[in-house]
TrEMBL record:
This is Transport permease protein. Residues 32-257 form the ABC transmembrane type-2 domain. One of its GO terms (biological process) is lipopolysaccharide transport. Its main location: membrane. GO terms for cellular component: plasma membrane. Belongs to the ABC-2 integral membrane protein family. It holds the Pfam family ABC2_membrane. PANTHER family: CAPSULE POLYSACCHARIDE EXPORT INNER-MEMBRANE PROTEIN CTRC, INNER MEMBRANE TRANSPORT PERMEASE. GO terms for molecular function: ABC-type transporter activity. The keyword Nucleotide-binding does not apply. It is a multi-pass membrane protein. It is found in: Cell membrane.
Length: 265
């Protein structure tokens, strides 16, 4: 694992330039450019807010009189899930999409998922900035516990990179994985309290939902942005440990399989 990280560090300028190229190439012919990365999740959140805000606003603790409570709850959860799903979705096909590049150029293959992660960081920092600007315009200023957002984003990135790298490596050899993962992510969205508060879920089901690491990360984002509460330290440490272990497994799997990837591709 140490050799993989050192090789990525030696190619850090290649990684940074590739992130810039990736970001520009995705919107080179678009007049709105990178704004599309912000518009899509905001429109989705706005649709849910318009449809469900009257039903679910009163279910948020101590927020029954705040008309912005549910939209903020929804936006903060969407931000957390957007980071998670984007990294996994792009890592899933990153080696397949760059098969020709891997055959023609010699560079550490670990650079590809790192580039994907870097691009996701840029996209979601823009989304976070847009959310904060919108909230400021509407007259809501998050409390001081918003300082926990960077730590929450880092843990979410590590978790999603670990899962994404495992799935992306396996997808090279077992292409069915690429068909199953989008379905699982869609189910994961609904089994994570993003659109609805966890308090409306029956108590018999709630312990099973809490086994999902994203349950705690999404709750951390919502606590920081809406309720002005620090995340649960015990839950955060457990999720961080799971994320690091998954990333270690992913790097070990990738190192053992990388020599065979080019032949399969």
């Amino acid at each position: 694992m140490k050799s993989l990280l050192l090789s990525a560090w030696r190619y850090r300028y290649f990684i940074l330039s590739s992130i810039k190229v990736d970001f520009r190439s995705r919107f080179v012919r678009s007049r709105l450019g990178g704004l599309w990365m912000i518009i899509n999740p905001l429109v989705q959140a706005a649709m849910f807010a318009l449809i469900l805000s009257q039903v679910l606003s009163g279910r948020l603790p101590d927020m029954a009189d705040n008309k912005l409570a549910y939209p903020i709850y929804l936006l903060s959860g969407t931000l957390a899930w957007n980071i998670f799903s984007e990294v996994i979705t792009r890592c899933l096909t990153v080696f397949i999409e760059n098969g020709n590049l891997l055959k023609k150029l010699v560079f550490p293959r670990i650079c590809l998922p790192i580039i994907v992660t870097g691009s996701a960081i840029v996209n979601n920092l823009l989304l976070l900035g847009a959310i904060l600007i919108i909230l400021a315009i509407l007259g809501f200023v998050p409390g001081y516990n918003v300082v926990w957002l960077p730590l929450l984003m880092v843990i979410t990135l590590i978790l999603s990179l670990g899962i994404g790298l495992i799935l992306g490596t396996l997808n090279v050899f077992i292409r069915d994985i690429g068909q199953v993962v989008p379905i699982v992510l869609q189910l994961g969205w609904w089994f994570t309290p993003i659109v609805y508060p966890a308090s409306i879920v029956p108590e018999t089901i709630r312990p099973w939902m809490q086994l999902n690491p994203m349950y705690w990360l999404v709750q951390g984002f919502q606590n920081a942005m809406l309720f002005n509460r620090a995340p649960s330290w015990l839950a955060l440490c457990c999720v961080a440990l799971i994320a690091v272990l998954l990333l270690r497994v992913a790097l070990t799997l990738f190192r053992r399989a990388s020599s065979e990837m080019v032949d399969v591709l």
